[in-house]
Amino acid sequence: MIQPMIEKSLWHPVADERTLGSSPMAVSVLEHPLVLWRDSSGSVHAWTDRCPHRGARLSMGQIAQDRLQCPYHGWQFDTRGQCRLIPASAELKPPAGYCASDHPVAVQHGLIWVQLQAQAEAEVPPFADESSGLRLLNCGPYDVASSAPRVVENFLDMAHFSFVHEGWLGALEHPEIEPYEVQETPRGLLATGCKAWQPRSNLHSTAAAQVEYTYEVTGPYSAFLSKLPEAGSTRLTDWREAIGLFVCPLTAESCRVWFRLAMADHESSDEALASFQHTIFCQDQPVLESQQPKRLPLDPRSELHTSADRLSSAYRRYLRRLNITFGVC
User: Fold this and answer.
1) Cα(253)–Cα(266) distance, integer angstroms
2) What is the CATH number of the domain that holds 16?
């Protein structure tokens, strides 16, 4: 069981791997500023974005010979965070305590992940089997003026399809949600037997279809779904897809969102696949940002619920069990 301060011990996505070039990059998670940088071997480093000398932002500095140089007084830190050069006192060998505050970093799913507080048992949230031969593509980031848990709950919610995504993932004449099953798993939640009537469930839809969804919550701020439309309703044969949601909580009421697509489509352009996902999320975003409170209420009495909300209700109970405090109320 994950211990208190779970938010800091979780792995959080902070940047698309492709966007980190030869200069330091400023990012943030849980209201904590970070600097990312690459050394000459391509390895990524993540430190608190503060020079231990006079508090300047290291992300404003530059990389010199596999060292990150502070923009204020030119202090240089090696890949382990140890200070190696103080230009104003060049003869001084910096003591061991003269170091930047580093954090565990990982690169998975095309994203850079950071833990603020190291915990060996924590794992980067999984996605669909990436060796399955499906086409993989990342979409985003989207900066959203809502809490990370609100975004996750929206991803798990089918009852809004007929209204927010009318003509795409839902139809006004088919708003009903059939009963489905939700169960706990070692890493979160699993919902099976979820069905929705969709006029256009994917980029290659040729007819409206009943689509079967499976949802898995893989962490407080991550989830993925797989969807399978009825046979004959999609131009591509054997169509299947999975969509991962990875959310970085920036503040308690704002977040950055990435989607990872895995699709049986090797002919469409990246732009076409991303455009479909972009359209869907841009329908969600203004509604998400309108919700009050922006933080997700965990008290069962704070908002009303029906049987169609069983997955989101289970998600709220899951957050309570883990003692999540960031982005909830």
Assistant:
1) 38
2) 2.102.10.10
Contact 16, 137 (CB under 8 A): no
- pLDDT for the residue 5: 72
In-domain check, residue 158: yes
Q: To 10 degrees, the CA torsion angle through 75, 79, 81, 87?
A: -10
The SS3 call for residue 243 is strand
In terms of domains, do 101 and 174 share one?
Answer: no
- CATH code for the domain in which residue 283 is found: 3.90.380.10
Q: Is the pTM of this model over 0.70?
A: yes
CA atoms within 13 A on the CB side of 318: 26
Contacts of 205 (CB under 8 A, 6+ apart): 198, 199, 229, 233, 234, 235
| C-alpha count within 13 angstroms, C-beta hemisphere, residue 157 | 22
List, for residues 185-215, the tens digit of each pLDDT value.
999 999 999 999 988 888 888 888 889 999 9
Asked which of 68, 83, 114 is the last residue of a domain, the reply is 114
d(CA 153, CA 144): 14
- Residues 270, 169 within the same domain: yes
Residue 238 belongs to domain spanning: 135-321
Angle between helical axes of 310-321 and 148-156 (0-180°, round to 10): 140
